[in-house]
Amino acid sequence: MFEAAELGRKIKKTVYNEEIEGLRADLLQCQQELLDCDFSVVLLISGVDGAGKGEMVNQLHEWMDPRYLETTAFDAPTEEERERPHFWRYWRALPPKGKIGIHFSSWYSDPIAQRLNGQITQSQHEAYLSRVNTLEKMLVDDGTLLIKMWLHLGKKHYKQRIRHLASDPKTAWRVSKKNLDNIKVFDEFRSVAEDTLRQTSTGHAPWIIVEGYDPRYRSLTVGRLLRDMVRKRMEVDPKTLTSPTVDWTAKKDKTTLLDFVDLSQALKKKEYKEQLLHYQARLNVLARKAHKQKLSTVMALEGWDAAGKGGMIRRIIHALDSRHYRVIPVAAPTDEEKARHYLWRFWRHLQRAGHMTIFDRTWYGRVLVERIEGYARTDEWIRAYQEINEFEEELTEHGIVLMKYWLHIDKNEQLARFKAREQISYKQHKITDEDYRNRERWDDYAQAVADMVERTSTQVAPWHIIEGNDKRYARVRALQLLCDRLEQVV
Amino acid sequence: MFEAAELGRKIKKTVYNEEIEGLRADLLQCQQELLDCDFSVVLLISGVDGAGKGEMVNQLHEWMDPRYLETTAFDAPTEEERERPHFWRYWRALPPKGKIGIHFSSWYSDPIAQRLNGQITQSQHEAYLSRVNTLEKMLVDDGTLLIKMWLHLGKKHYKQRIRHLASDPKTAWRVSKKNLDNIKVFDEFRSVAEDTLRQTSTGHAPWIIVEGYDPRYRSLTVGRLLRDMVRKRMEVDPKTLTSPTVDWTAKKDKTTLLDFVDLSQALKKKEYKEQLLHYQARLNVLARKAHKQKLSTVMALEGWDAAGKGGMIRRIIHALDSRHYRVIPVAAPTDEEKARHYLWRFWRHLQRAGHMTIFDRTWYGRVLVERIEGYARTDEWIRAYQEINEFEEELTEHGIVLMKYWLHIDKNEQLARFKAREQISYKQHKITDEDYRNRERWDDYAQAVADMVERTSTQVAPWHIIEGNDKRYARVRALQLLCDRLEQVV
Fold first, then answer.
1. Which superfamily, per CATH, for B3-240?
2. Which of B27, B171, B323, B335 should be substituted to probe chain A, the one whose Cβ sees the most A Cβ atoms within 10 Å?
3. Would you tell me which of A312, A398, B4, B384 could form a disulfide with B366, CB atoms 3.0–4.6 Å apart?
4. What is the reported pLDDT for B1?
5. Which string of DSSP letters, residue by residue, matches B108-154?
6. Which residues of A touch B424 (CB under 8 A)?
7. So what's the ipTM on this one?
8. A350 Cβ neighbours under 8 A, 6+ residues apart
9. At what angle do helices B471-489 and B269-292 cross, to 10 degrees?
């Protein structure tokens, strides 16, 4: 795989000088046009130490307009980063549409280093890479142009380079003990790197290996590639980027699992009061323990309009310390959110270790309202099931307790609640024409909910359908499920 | 000051029950109306341990719609917080317009604790409080409703409360050694607290002391106050919030300091090349040292359109490692930015320790384009000078090196550059009708620049006016000034 990049390729100064001015103008022009485009560019720069990664990135900053370039270098994770799932810091650094983000030491540097040090096994390495593939697919499917460049050097040239740097007092500071040690393990490194590149060189995000021996060759090659790939991407119709989707929804029969929910469940007032107190006390103890153990919880609340999410949230937080949770209302995205992948706005709200994040409506909007109202294209919402499963797996793998509730009521109960709300002054704002419009599409939503549960109720993150016609029953049930789950882990 | 809050005030259960439902409805209504208002509410909850601060905040969350409440509890600062100026984490947590943010252990807890422990002297304490007053004034002037509640307990009741908690196994966990120690230093604490409140109880943000002894009294009082203050604020015309401003600009004569800038300064090509290389090499060494020492630099670049900021930035970053700086282009604010104080969007971009942040246009937009185009009211841009000085003092006090450049050219030179840009395809986008419109207001801008320099060139953050008619001279000069400054500190 690397043989072609170990030849010592060079470019003459005259050739370089001839081309360089035009290339810089092209790159600036590309950036300018990109500002009006509906996608972002993420450029990952990885490779062998001493192959000129740093110089290359500096070079790009000099050539291009640094105002529309955002370079993020990922060193050892900070305290705030360690308290969130692994990919959080990469999500956080994603550029908005119209800009180019350079990721330096991206999600590839950890697995290669850890594999070399023996901190992870080969199968752990592979598992991680398959997660990386999914992440990259998500970004590409969303329209991101993902360019992965590996700057390479053969062992001979690597040794030469290190010795050359070490021999000049002006550059000797750049040679660390690690560089010298790397010479010894070079063959092993090369083999782990090849393994990594092979497993992650996918159709949607192939690796490009660039020989790093000669600065002119390297600069010109990377510059040209970047220009040509951005230009090519600009000509592409976004709809053709994703593989054609089989729309399986037509095949469905009319009965969904929601028809089997027993909505007659109810609690008498006295029973309710007792049980509410009981579970709130239990939750209080469990939540305190969880906070102490730095165990985080994410609650994803979905349900019909007027199903009682608000009241349920109030009963839950009653048992919690307000310093240890945050309720995130999910409404229309802000423009900073619109400029990125739809999951970005949920990633950004993940709280620090030991906290509970309660999402009032969630990422499932993608397969509910966005599907029904046509805000997302068919291929977009269909692939969202897998993207969501992946997202949730990342949360749970980090040790986060994830609870997903669908708060269910029937159509008559909804109407009764709409009418009741219209009678109470401070609840009137909760009822709008939109609610009635959504109501008309009840069957479509029911189908979407059924599909959602079928496709995203996983072992690590099962859906709980809460029988909600009786508010008392629903609240107690929600508390009980949460307590039971926390009890298993704290 | 605290005497009135040490009486053991109580409210009867019947009175409480009678009022509470109406109060809750009112609070919900307030929140709903607030969503459409052009201001945010920041509620600071401070006070004596055991006076029910936590319970109070939990209570508010239960009563109100938790989706529009954001509580932030400030514990010991995280690594990312410690690497930024002190107030960074408080700015970061400010709620957007339309929402209520509760700040728990706000900017008041550190100074009180540190004063008690003897970590800071009385004069340091006072200096900090005067900074707090300025911050609060800034927020209030921007329209924020700032409510500061001190929940109080007298010594007798404090002792009672701690002993009571300790005696019940269900609550004993809440009593820490610190609580017991606090009994011993209660008088001292009370005196430092009184000192703090007295110095920060200003006309724009007075303290409200609430006796915390009886939960019903405390809850009802805080709830009522919150409702009444939000309601009252809604009736106020924002323009009347700030003190009338003397517009001193009319008094100015036509000659400004810009007329005394010697624009004939120039460098020959050979000289330029030599000096450029010289200073870039010097900057490279200095920047590496600064990074190692975790010393941050903020560069604030302003100048006429076409003055050559872009080219100057490229010459500077040529000497830097792209992992260690970020260029922030300042254009129209995003909607998340518009919903907050105008300085918020600059606070959010401060990089971690050891990094350079280059602002391409800055917070000075407030007293330049916003002043000239009328985007800011007169009282807003006039008070901005002081706000900006304060902001910059916070940066420099944290140890950040702050460099402010005004890149100056004359009117003829600008026209020549506009014409030249129109000839080069990838530079055409840089010239728009707006540039010509701005040009027509040259004299207004010149006056604004002169005022800006006069009012914000401080010892800690002086302005450098760079003679820019000759690009070569300007670039070398910018590098030289930066090197000279860094040399003093690394």
1. P-loop containing nucleotide triphosphate hydrolases (3.40.50.300)
2. B323
3. B384
4. 77
5. THHHHHHHHTTSS-HHHHHHHHHHHHHHHHHHHHTT-EEEEEEEE--
6. 25
7. 0.80
8. A84, A85, A88, A296, A298, A357, A395
9. 30
Per-domain residue ranges of chain B = 3-240, 248-489
C-alpha–C-alpha distance, residues B357 and B328, integer Å = 7
DSSP code at position B429: G
Is B62 close to A314, i.e. CB distance below 8 A? yes
- Model pLDDT, residue B51: 87
Is A57's CB within 8 Å of B310's CB? no
pLDDT tens for A1-20 read 787 788 888 899 999 999 99
Rounded (10°) CA dihedral B172, B173, B177, B180: -30
Partner-chain contact B68 A329, CB within 8 Å? yes
Looking at chain A from residue 249 to 278, which residues have their Cβ under 8 Å from any Cβ of chain B?
Answer: none
- Does A3-240 match A248-489 in CATH topology? yes
| Cα A397 from Cα A405, distance rounded (Å) | 20
Dihedral Cα B348, B349, B350, B351, nearest 10 deg: 120
Q: What is the pTM of this model?
A: 0.84
B contacts of A28 (beta carbons < 8 Å): 426
Tokens encoding A234: 């600009």
Q: Determine the pLDDT at residue B331.
A: 86
Quick check: A208 and A48 in contact, CB under 8 A? Answer: no
E strands present in B334-413 = 356-360, 401-408
Place of tokens 């970061």: B92
Give the distance from residue A460's alpha carbon to the nearest chain B alpha carbon, in angstroms.
Answer: 27
B316 near A CB under 8 A: no
Residue A164, phi-psi category: left (phi > 0), alpha (psi -120 to 50), beta (remainder):
alpha
- Is B230 strand, coil or helix? helix
Instruction: Tell me the one-letter amino acid at B276.
Output: L
Which residues in B lie closer than 8 A to residue A318 (C-beta atoms)?
Answer: 58, 62
Out of A32, A54, A69, the one facing B426 most closely (by C-beta) is A32
Q: CATH 3.40.50.300: does it fit domain B248-489?
A: yes
Ranges of chain A with pLDDT below 70: 238-254
Which of A25, A57, A358 is facing B322, going by the closest CB pair? A57
Query: Considering only CB atoms, which chain A residues are within 8 Å of B60?
Result: 322
Chain B hits for A336, CB-CB cut-off 8 Å, are 334-336
Establish if B429 touches chain A: CB-CB under 8 angstroms: yes
Task: List, as one string, the DSSP characters of A362-430.
Answer: -GGGGGTHHHHTTSS-HHHHHHHHHHHHHHHHHHHHTT-EEEEEEEE--HHHHHHHHHHHHHSGGGGGG
A82 interfaces chain B, CB cutoff of 8 Å: no
Q: Which residues of B touch A314 (CB under 8 A)?
A: 61-62, 66
Please give the Cα distance from A99 to B36 (Å, whole number). 32
Report the C-alpha dihedral over residues B365, B404, A74, B96, rounded to 10 degrees. Answer: -30
- One-letter identity of residue B166: A
